Amino acid sequence: MLSQKENTCGPYSLTCLLRGMGFTAHKGNEIDEDYLASLASTNILIEDEEISESIKKKIKLGILTEEDVHRRFREVVYKFKLPTTSKESELGTSVQGLVDACTMATDGKIAPLPLPSVGRNRQELFTREKFPRLLKLIFENRDRWCAQALLNYRADRLLNMNSPEYTFFDVLTNFEDEKRFGNDPYHVGHLVTLAGLIRDLKTDHYALLIRDAYKKKGFQGYHIQPFEAVRRALIRDDGREGGILLLVKVEFSEEAQKALEGLGLVISTWDNGSPYRPNVADRANAPGK
Question: pTM of the full predicted structure?
Fold first, then answer.
């Protein structure tokens, strides 16, 4: 089982989706969060790289074994060299990086379609009318397109999953009552995957089932969120941009793109604050290349 590293929630979430779609290895490398982070040029702190490199040197010298590292240092050891930064605001993975990682790891068999929630002129693209239609399109074509989605949102717009009120029964029967649960105190951008759709038969209202990289969130990483809360979280309104990265089989990419554009949406990457710093030399020298 994967042990999700800090600042690699994007590669972790993409790993879960690609493995579920049957992609487990690429050019001699296991498709895991480390490999996808290298393809996506995920940004990590300089001090984390220093710790990681120090531990790897101890392995070469026989001071530590790989078993020791996995047990004791999993959170800070990276298999591949990643771009570094001294600014916490730059940590994480850019959307363009995720697009690259998905395309390369699947040899182009899966097409990543980035859908920004806000346009270049700051107009809302995920409006109250368009957002339900987008989700309906995804779920109606999920099997045929082999569609999967990553959501890049502002976490503190969602229900507080650590609230004592947030029990499975309460949230399932009161998911539209935001005052009951309060908001998630996690004041940062986040990347998660879309797991399912929940319908309230009494009111005919819908909620989304989210699969989170952090198992402490919700119910072992799964949590239920109302449509409107997710829509607002995707729009973000915190100085950065959000959106949905939709993955489809490449043979259906043209059909999917036309359907999405027919909803008035745009196929384009967005700026989530994590710089895109592709390191061609490191990618070329990675194991299995």
Answer: 0.88
